[in-house]
Design a protein that fits this description.
Elements lengths: L11 E3 L3 E4 L3 H12 L19 H17 L5 E10 L2 E11 L1 H4 L1 E8 L8 H16 L4 E7 L3 H9 L3 E10 L2 E11 H7 L5 E3 L5 H5 L2
Parallel strand pairs: 5-6
Antiparallel strand pairs: 1-2, 1-9, 2-3, 3-4, 4-5, 6-8, 7-8
Helix pairs in contact: 1-2
Length: 214
């Protein structure tokens, strides 16, 4: 795709095993198919919004619409960068980086998922490390925040390996039941101390001011 009018399509994050980029329609269809094929066992819900409930075609369609919606709703004051994660040329998951009033607050939040066949191989840590590198090294973030269910050890493990510190708990409602989420926070000094993944960024200069407001 020629990113003439939306140069975010030219942004690339690369790690030793992964490439992250905003998906065009073909990659977005692959991303939707990964979600439709399953992200977790049906008897549990790792997400605070149970968007994976429903038949596979509805889950895939929800992913397709959501990512297109993040592009349509983008502003420098309120943005969500929803990146397809590719491993060996195939889409394996999604990594989000989002912020409101980033130019003032310099705070980002992250969210992600991997298809079931790609879990347990360290890819979740690597893709979040890429997003954090973009935030801190590329955009000048001061801190990053995240949250995970207290019974989601994989997500919490990724956060702790990357240097996040516990930041309290909160209660939400999922599938009509109360759930406890653990908040996590990573400031710049902790990110610098714990960074272990080599990350390169391409195409940031074309979008930094106009689309991120920094």
């Amino acid at each position: 795709m020629e990113p003439r009018h939306w140069p975010l399509y030219g942004l690339r994050l690369r790690t030793p095993r992964l490439e992250l980029r905003l998906p065009g329609l073909e990659l977005l269809d692959e991303l939707a198919a990964v979600a439709a094929d399953g992200l977790h066992a049906p008897d549990r819900m790792p997400f605070s919004v149970p968007w994976t409930d429903g038949p596979p075609e509805a889950v895939g369609r929800a992913v397709f619409q959501h990512v297109l919606g993040t592009v349509a709703a983008w502003s420098a004051q309120d943005w969500t960068l929803s990146l397809a994660v590719l491993h060996e040329g195939r889409v394996v998951g999604r990594q989000d980086l989002a912020a409101r009033e980033f130019g003032v607050l310099r705070q980002v939040r992250t969210g992600s998922w991997l298809g079931l066949p790609h879990q347990g191989r360290g890819l979740g840590t690597e893709m979040r490390a890429a997003a954090l590198h973009l935030a801190f090294a590329g955009l000048g973030a001061r801190c990053a925040v995240s949250a995970a269910m207290t019974d989601n050890p994989r997500s919490l493990g990724v956060s702790h390996r990357l240097g996040y510190a516990d930041d309290g708990v909160e209660t939400g409602v999922v599938r009509g039941e109360p759930v406890t989420l653990r908040r996590l926070r990573l400031d710049r000094s902790r990110w610098e101390e714990f960074r272990r993944v080599d990350v390169s960024v391409e195409g940031l200069d074309d979008v930094r001011r106009a689309q991120f407001g920094v």
